[in-house]
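Handout, tutorial session.
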Amino acid sequence: MPGLTVRGKVRDMYDLGDELMIVASDRISAFDVVMQQAVPGKGVVLTQLSRHWFDTLPAAKPHHMLYVVDGERVPPGFEAWRNELRGRAMVCRKARVLPIECVVRGYLVGGGWKEYQA
């Protein structure tokens, strides 16, 4: 596909001019290593989870997502890859990255637990 600007461990980014297309692959990584075997459909699940939370959480708005590629909406020049992109590609506004990472696990501990109890 034309315009590949960044290939990450599990996502690829394409420059569309004023917008970006982020494609979630079926690749898996653990401990910063990309595994040889992919998980079929994983990219679609990742993109649909992102879409769900962007659509659901009012505090997450405004956000960068414009739309998820489906059978009707495909960025110009990518029509030939419609089936490969369907459900796994997100067209987004270009934005400045806010370098924050949040890891959520199954237990509330530490300062978060103390604040919750108060």
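The second record follows below. Compare its token runs with those of the first.
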Amino acid sequence: MKKRIFYFIIAAALIAGSLGFYPASTGLANGIPTTRGSRVLAAWDGISVGGYTSRPSVAQGESIGFYISTDLPTYNLKIYREGGTRTLMTTIPNLTGVKYECLGGYAIGCGWPVAVNFQVPASWPSGFYTVEIPTTAKGNQFAIFWVREDSPGSASTVLYLASVNGYQATSNFGGKSFFDLSSDSNLRASVLSFDRPYGSNGRGNWPLEQDLVVWAEAKGYTLEYATTYDMEYTTGLLDPYQVVVLGGYGDYWSWSMRQQVKAFLGRGGRLINLSGKTMWFQTRYENNGRTVISYQNAASDPISTTQSITSRASDFPILDTEAAITGLSFRSGGLTGASFITSTLSYENGYGGYWVQNSSHWVFEGTDLTNGSVLGRGTDLETSVLGRETDGTTFNCDVDGRTILGAIGNNGTPENFRVLGIAPASQGANSDMGFAAFGIYTLPGGGAVFSSGSVGWSSAIHDPKVAQITANVLNRFIANDIPAEPANPADSEYLFVDRFNCKNLDHEGAAVTDTGPAWFQGVPSHNYSGWVGDLSLIRYNDICGVRGGSGLEFTAIQSTTIELHSQLNPNWQGVNKVYTSMWVNFAGLALPDGGQFTLLKSFAYNGISDTAVMTLRVRMRAGQLSVRVSDNATNISGAWIDVPKDRPFLLETGWDQANNLISLWVDSKRLDLTVPLTTLPAVNRVDFGVKNLPIGTTGSICVDEMGIAEQRIGFGFDANTPIYLPVISR
């Protein structure tokens, strides 16, 4: 049976929070080598030399302090501007060297005395600056800072924001970082001080951003520079600009930073997001901005207010998903190409580049790319557009199982987000957890967002096609010549299914068969959104579905539970009306007499505990299968309704809070159950699957055209603006 197919990805960050990523190759800036650091997956070496600054950035004409520890008796400091050319700006000679220990460690900071207070000349252009510090023990080290325009917007209406919180997160100077594997005792910190050097010889994550900046300036683009940190401490930082560019490792954002970007987009600003894992964690600053806090877990943070707590931005109690801003989320993406972590996902299986989608889009002008082409694959991890953290989205496919129709809105991605490329992503041993994606969407007021979905976009800028796409986006965004993105083809706002028949999205578009286990995207649920159970027990079956079509066959084994936990709305917003529908075929099921199991359950979940508000049960008695719905809060249950055992039948439920009504349909025959639903919280999660199959159960259960929506079309439910469509049959 051929129908439109929908696709749903849930990818959780179970492992990535314990890892730090540093580049490991060498670049050139105008012929001057800029040696990159190596991956740091071990504890700090304990050698206390290097430097840091009194603040991440200064405006032209302002002063900045340099705090230096070196084992040389005397030394000179050299200050360079890094960009299209690497320029020596000045030398500060004949300083007396002193080597200090980092007595306060990673959390309090090193507490070194200031070596130099330096006034930045008013003539120095905005940009990224390195302070070269000679040492014997570790060679040249660096302190870094950014120079902002003293008259913002006077040189350019394009602002490049460096992801400086990521620089702090990956530095383990003093013993710990925000990552387990680069921290003492393999236990990450929750508090880090700016009063200590960054990693990568003091340059932090600049190597993840430098190729893009070098390329842009060499191509003649004039940029002004600041850091994400500056949004917190510089009032109206974004106001003078029309375009904002993000790069690098963009994981850590405060509540205020995200709201400022939303306001910028709302007034017609354009965001070019070339970072990865963007806005995943909410952070906060303390100690007058010299300390950054990231517990990464609401339960561990002593502060619990929504705007200050440090957890994933999309989780309770923050509920401010990054996908609503960037269009993408790490939850739907994952890691790519880090073979020391994701050994099950090889380079050849896709991490090197994106598979192009919607190749007729203006973003691809001048590239000759077609659908299925591979974009940005380099010669190794460090030169590929993919290779570290990636963000993705949930999306649907057409009947060919390969053509991307568009993003699905229940994770927060705007419904007109145009998917332009995808690639498989992984976390640990779960190699099929998600898809990296890049794409674009527009806002009604003229705003627009292009998101690369990858930390590695800058590393691949040497690729002519990646460079052409980047130039296309920059040119259109600067000129404000961006066609409005139309809404994606109609689909359900709330979907309940995984990849299913998007299974032809394999390596470079080659066809695959539907034998073997169904190819699900999901992980054992840690946030009540994902699959739970042994997914190898679910397989495609070409004939068990409705009208002889294919369906999903659940192997029925006693005590087995296989469920999909699905939020209904971005940020776990509740709804007061929920409709579910599926075709069910019990012909292959052998359920013992008197045996029962749960097939579907609706919940109100508050991030800590859940309240079941409706349950659909299946029972075998005297050779007859029957189903019924129950209201869990009042323990009111409907009558058992007999169902066919020898053919597929349509099974539907409705939960209507406003009318105090629970409904059950079997082949469109309706039974209503009146219960006091208005006293219950609104539903925001629905679980589908087989739960606690009784002892003696064997065989299988087949489901087809499974979907979830806010209302049923007709049959007594409000039929205005219907949004339900079938979702899993071919």
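Points raised in discussion: The chain has a mean pLDDT of 82.
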